[in-house]
């Protein structure tokens, strides 16, 4: 019985790991070259942020993280959000999700990972915008880029409009456009099928039985 429980638990671990395996939805960091080109954003100026829009393909995914290649100047406080939108603009009156800041960010270029604080499903066919801005701190938040490197990712997913935050207004008021994608990468995982969700309940039951056998 003990051996059977251990084998069952091992199988469930493998299955749930595959459900949560992260993949790159879209981005260009895999083609990273250098940080020669850069743009600085700073609260209280005429350049407070940048938004990169993308349209989903035919598959839903859960958002795991957004990775941006940043340099944070003294006092810089980056804010990374997900907004709804269409092919030409950001819509809605507030962010769909505010991602969790990785904490202390060094004053050198690093790939900074901002994580989703809760499960959020990116819906097939919908358009979203990753927004980086600085609303407080008034220190430079620098995001580098290489205009010659294209994005790649999951089938059917593509970038759309890039918008520049030219004032302190809400991102849905941003209209100035950009021709480049800064270094970024969006990490996602598969949305579990209903049958797969049952694995979690089964895993809890088997773990409970296994602990009872050890007691």
Features:
alpha+beta, Jelly Rolls, eight-stranded antiparallel beta sheet, 14 strands
Quick summary:
The protein is an alpha+beta fold.
Q: What can you see in these coordinates?
A:
The protein has about 220 residues and is α+β, with helices and mostly antiparallel strands. The protein has a single domain (about 20-190), classed as Jelly Rolls. The protein is about 20% helix and about 35% strand. The chain contains two helices and 14 strands, in the order H-E-E-E-E-E-E-E-E-E-E-E-E-E-E-H. The strands form two sheets. Strands 1, 2, 4, 7, 8, 10, 11 and 14 form an eight-stranded antiparallel sheet that branches. The chain has a six-stranded antiparallel sheet with strand order 6-5-9-3-12-13, with no helix packed on it. Helix 1 (about 1-20) packs antiparallel against helix 2. It is globular, with a radius of gyration of 20 Å. The model is unreliable at about 5-20 (pLDDT under 50).
Shape, please? globular
Strand content: 35-45%
Total individual domains = 1
Residues in helix, %: 10-25%
CATH architecture: Sandwich
The biggest beta sheet is recorded as: 8 strands, antiparallel
- Count of DSSP strands: 14
With helices defined by DSSP (H or I, 4 residues minimum), what is the helix count?
2
Order of helices and strands: HEEEEEEEEEEEEEEH
Distance between the termini: 14 Å
